[in-house]
Specification:
By secondary structure, the chain is mainly α. 47% of the residues lie in helices and 10% in strands. Helix 1 packs across helix 2. The radius of gyration is 16 Å and the shape is globular.
Length: 195
């Protein structure tokens, strides 16, 4: 089901993908269209997650140059308010608010690295937040959407996020997945917790 839906999704969204690609290049001709970042997947297997680029090419250096902002980023569950984050481009701000930056993750689903529904894949540093529950968290494929997303997304930080992700792992079923997909649509349209 994941493979079929992701393939159909990529085909249907190809005009949108082309348009977004052009907008990113118009905003910054020197940048790459896609951003990839190492994430931890099922059974601890690492993979590169794909997104539309929403940040400047040297984003991490820009953030680390501001010591106070970097400390705030770490303290705030690896997040900053979008209006204070110097890494985000103009088109990137819009892509994040509409969650359209996530569209390329359909490639990850097609490759079998992710599922449509599951816990959000974390960067290796974030995995430490799961402490003794790491193996439980990593027992399922990460997803494009999940229980955490419909419960507030970036408005819900650690350790509450751990509880939400593990709640999904324990109750994973086709019906629960369909419910999450159904509830994701209004959540995205309302831009709840979109960072």
């Amino acid at each position: 089901m994941d493979i079929l839906i992701s393939l159909i999704g990529l085909l249907m969204l190809s005009p949108v993908i082309l348009l977004i690609s052009m907008l990113i290049k118009f905003d910054d001709p020197k940048t790459t269209i896609f951003f990839k970042q190492l994430r931890v997947g099922k059974n601890g297997n690492s993979f590169f997650i794909y997104k539309f680029r929403t940040m400047h090419q040297n984003a991490e250096n820009i953030l680390m140059e501001n010591n106070n902002l970097y400390k705030k980023y770490l303290k705030n569950n690896y997040k900053l308010e979008q209006n204070e984050d110097p890494r985000i481009t103009k088109i990137g701000l819009w892509l994040r608010k509409t969650s359209m930056d996530e569209i390329p993750q359909l490639i990850n689903v097609l490759k079998g690295e992710m599922s449509l529904v599951g816990p959000r894949p974390v960067v290796p540093e974030e995995l430490e937040e799961y402490k003794s529950k790491k193996n439980e968290f990593l027992s399922v494929k990460p997803g494009m959407t999940g229980y955490w997303q419909i419960c507030g997304r970036s408005n819900v930080g650690y350790p509450e996020r751990v509880d939400l992700e593990l709640y999904y792992v324990k109750r994973k079923s086709l019906m629960f997945d369909l419910l999450i997909i159904f509830k994701t649509i209004p959540s995205v349209l309302k831009k709840d917790g979109a960072f």
